[in-house]
Specification:
With 500 residues, the chain is of the alpha+beta class. The chain has 15 helices and twelve strands. Strands 1-2-4-5-3 form a five-stranded antiparallel beta sheet, with helices on both faces. A five-stranded antiparallel beta sheet has the order 6-7-9-10-8, sandwiched between helices. It has a two-stranded antiparallel sheet with strand order 11-12.
């Protein structure tokens, strides 16, 4: 029995919260932690001021804190609260003290009062200026892009949606990083189920570090094993504002220049904000071109391999002569030359992306020209396949959202494998597998293949095609917003021409 009480007392000591002195001694091991004891000139009251120099603004300390603490008259922490022109926090909670100190607050401890402390915010804002869009560059649209500061990004969104219904909920995620994350939506418009789903998934994140929005995107996706992105990632504040106006939910993360939007569907990845700056028929043509481009990028090389390996009889005679002359010196089967070219394109793409901008562009252009010419002259591949691979690589970049082009890059290789094994039958089986996967895929519990499945003809107006604005009086049906009607179209009065 005595051993039991001894063990219980030890456990009790372990579960006790750390004291203020132990916390200060622990953080004092860091070189950027500064602590100084001084005395008030009027009351001779001794106090200590502590802060982390890399997190605080020295001008705020020198101009708005120290002069009042040294020359003002105070006897208690309550007097400091009334004396300093910055809103202070009085607390004795060690957890609250730690959170505030590690986010840029100044800690004030009176010599005669070690139980309570004062915390004065003095956080320094370090960030880059707002720059132009890089990935989603628009010719006719706005050029401002998100930066790494959450407050600046929220400012960019609020300036485009100056309404009181815009709600911003903040969360702290990551046991190590303590990353500020904001959930943004329009109250009274956004479907409350979508908001609750996103909020619940963010609150249930149990991860040690959140360095960017990509971490959250994977952790809250409906199917994290899918190669298809289920949330849209964008650097364009106008895209976020427009999506919020449609009834979507946005997630912004401190330290990340990208916002997450959901729920979304697959056709959202082929839509660009620039589509709304052009006429509706040009935008519709470009959207269809992007969809066809991705399909071509995935299927062009596998069909080439399948036809040459198993189905040469379907090739027209005139084209067959060209293929025979281009492959007469190639010693490899179609699958090997296709893999060689595809991997070469991927290597050039990765090298160009990782090198400095000017060097990367030069390597990509020169490397592509030199390598393409060399492999054809060496007889390692045919010039016909080189054309297919080059056009397919270009077609993959027609999408405005970079992550869907990465999906096309990945799933092209399984198509190549089944084309080599079973020909066109294998390609059809692979297409059926991808379609069945897309039919089951969801984004925040909403169908990912909408408006194809479930069929919603009204949503086709701003997904596969881009209809005129006057015909888009309803918000997307799959979002099930609380206000489905955008506006009430008015009938135009017919006016006579001047010569009538």
């Amino acid at each position: 029995m005595s051993l039991f009480f001894k063990q219980a007392s030890k456990d009790k000591v372990k579960n006790e919260p750390p004291s203020l002195s132990s916390f200060v001694s622990q953080i004092s091991k860091s070189g950027d932690f500064k602590q100084k004891k001084t005395t008030n000139q009027k009351t001779n009251l001794s106090f200590s001021i502590s802060f982390i120099s890399t997190l605080v603004d020295n001008d705020i300390i020198q101009q708005s804190i120290l002069p009042y603490l040294l020359q003002g008259e105070f006897h208690t922490l309550t007097d400091i609260h009334q004396l300093v022109p910055i809103q202070c926090v009085m607390t004795s909670d060690i957890t609250e003290i730690e959170d505030n100190l590690l986010t840029g607050s100044v800690l004030i401890i009176l010599e005669d009062d070690n139980d309570n402390v004062a915390l004065i915010p003095a956080r320094v804002e370090i960030g880059r200026s707002i720059d132009q869009l890089e990935i989603e560059y628009s010719v006719d649209g706005p050029k401002a892009a998100f930066v790494e500061s959450l407050d600046q990004n929220l400012n960019l969104v609020r300036t485009r949606l100056p309404i009181k219904e815009l709600v911003v909920e903040e969360f702290i995620i990551g046991t190590l990083t303590k990353t500020r994350t904001s959930l943004v939506y329009i109250d009274g418009l956004t479907n409350i189920e979508n908001v609750n789903t996103m909020r619940e998934r963010i609150e249930n994140i149990d991860f040690d570090q959140i360095q960017s929005s990509s971490y959250i995107e994977e952790l809250i996706s409906d199917n994290y094993n899918s190669p298809f992105p289920q949330l849209m990632s964008t650097e364009n504040p106008v895209e976020v504002a427009a999506s919020l106006g449609e009834g979507k939910v946005a997630v912004l993360v401190n330290g990340s220049p990208f916002a997450l939007l959901g729920p979304t569907n697959i056709f959202s990845f082929f839509s660009s904000f620039e589509d709304y700056a052009n006429s509706w028929y040009i935008s519709t043509f470009v959207r269809l071109l992007r969809i066809i481009g991705i399909i071509f990028s995935i299927l062009a090389t596998p069909i080439y391999v399948a036809v040459l390996t198993y189905h040469p009889e379907i090739i027209p005679k005139d084209v067959m002569a060209t293929l025979i002359s281009s492959r007469e010196n190639v010693p490899f089967p179609p699958i090997l030359e296709a893999l060689f070219l595809e991997l070469a394109i991927e290597l050039l793409r990765e090298a160009g992306a990782r090198l400095p901008t000017k060097v990367g562009q030069t390597i990509g252009i020169v490397g592509g020209i030199v390598l393409g010419t060399a492999v054809v002259e060496a007889g390692l591949t045919s010039n016909v396949l080189l054309i297919f691979v080059a056009i397919g690589a270009l077609a993959a970049f027609t999408t405005p959202i970079y992550k869907i082009s990465n999906t096309a890059r990945i799933i092209r290789f399984p198509f190549l494998l089944v084309a080599h094994l079973w020909g066109l039958l294998g390609i059809n089986l692979c297409i059926y597998f991808v379609l069945s996967h897309l039919l089951q895929l969801k984004s925040l519990n909403r169908p990912f293949l909408e408006p194809i499945y479930p069929p919603r003809l009204r949503d086709v107006k701003d997904s596969i095609i881009r209809a005129t604005f006057i015909k888009q009086k309803l918000r997307p049906g799959y979002l099930q917003t609380q206000q489905p009607i955008r506006f009430s179209p008015k009938k135009k009065k017919k006016t006579k021409d001047i010569d009538e």
